Amino acid sequence: MALVGAAVVLVAQATAAVAQPDAPPTERSTPPLFSTADPLDLMITADFRALQGDRRESPDRAALLTVAAGDRTVGVGANVRTRGAFRLDPANCSFPPLRLDVRGADAVGTVLEGQDDLKLVSSCRPGRSAYDDLVWLEYSVYRSYARLTDDAFQVRLVRLTFVDTAEELPRQTRMGFLIEEADALAERRGARLFELEEGKNLPPAAFEPIARTRNAVFQYMIGNTDWSEVAAHNVEILELNGGATVVPYDFDFSGLVDAPYSVPAADLNLSNVRERLYRGWCVNAFTVRVVLDGFREARSDILTLWAGAVELDERTRRRATGYLEDFFGAIETDERAERRFLRDCREMPG
Asked: What SS3 class is residue 72?
């Protein structure tokens, strides 16, 4: 572990790839927003007509968040802006992903107390069932990773009502979910959040091996190749216990979610996103065994989570659970796992 921590420090000093923040706080408990899996009723009043046009730039726009506080409702001031890349393109999604910047003083005494900068995921083509299902599928992927480790983003299901202040768009109610802010994740875990400069990478050796391998096996489990820990692509990097820990996010290009617009990168030579490809770095057999034991222990919890996703139609739910069962069947024995994760890994540079 000390060697891994030393590698992180050495790389940071030598390349200036990582901005070193202040010393991390101590680990904190789960905030009220993420303390339950019950859906939260949230009404967002904003100029959604303008927001739908915010594709090349993402200015802050005033918003009012209405939530329950005991037996009454409370209005919490906020700014809302568009975010993302692929789903921000109007050719791909008619409704952009959003980010909510909560006004702290207004949120005191509500479930939003202590929150600041929250990602909001909702259907990017509202009213189309195939896209509405993507919300439930991606939400369940986040929850699946949290069954494996506490170094995971917390999520909260939300029953959203959108009210357009311009009165040009009809009031809409649909499901979505909120994602914990990266800084809040780091604070909750008593860690530091790394920010890589554009175009810079960390070496694989900078990452704690078990955490690095857990992420890679999880990405294989869900059929996702749209990530890179060394380039911090679709992952956050935490310095935790002297090593770099990777925390994944953004799973719409995975085979488990199987979004209508998702395709694998051409250079991977995959026929579709449902075809799995292991992109983890080579490690010793002990590390693989420890990681796979964690997946085996979580098997029942993960499959129960998906089997209980009654919001999905039976065909979609059975397709998702079948995809996961294929993975768990493949790791039933050490021999099968060794063939997959020790043979088909990427060699460490250097």
From this structure: strand
User: Whole-angstrom Cα distance, residue 247 to residue 252?
Assistant: 16
pLDDT of residue 27: 60
Question: For the chain, what's the residue count?
Answer: 350
Which pTM value belongs to this model?
0.90
How large is the angle between the packed helices 129-146 and 314-330, nearest 10 degrees? 30
The alpha-carbon radius of gyration of the chain (Å, integer) is: 21
Whether 21 has a pLDDT exceeding 60, the answer reads no
CA distance 141 to 136: 9
Q: Extract long-range pairs of 145-151: CB within 8 Å, 24+ residues apart.
A: 145/218, 145/248, 147/298, 147/301, 147/302, 147/305, 148/214, 148/218, 148/294, 148/295, 148/298, 149/211, 149/214, 149/294, 150/189, 151/189, 151/211, 151/238, 151/240, 151/245, 151/247
pLDDT digits 0-9 by tens, 333-344: 777 777 789 989
Cβ atoms 341, 217 nearer than 8 A: yes
Confidence of residue 170 (pLDDT cuts 50, 70, 90): confident
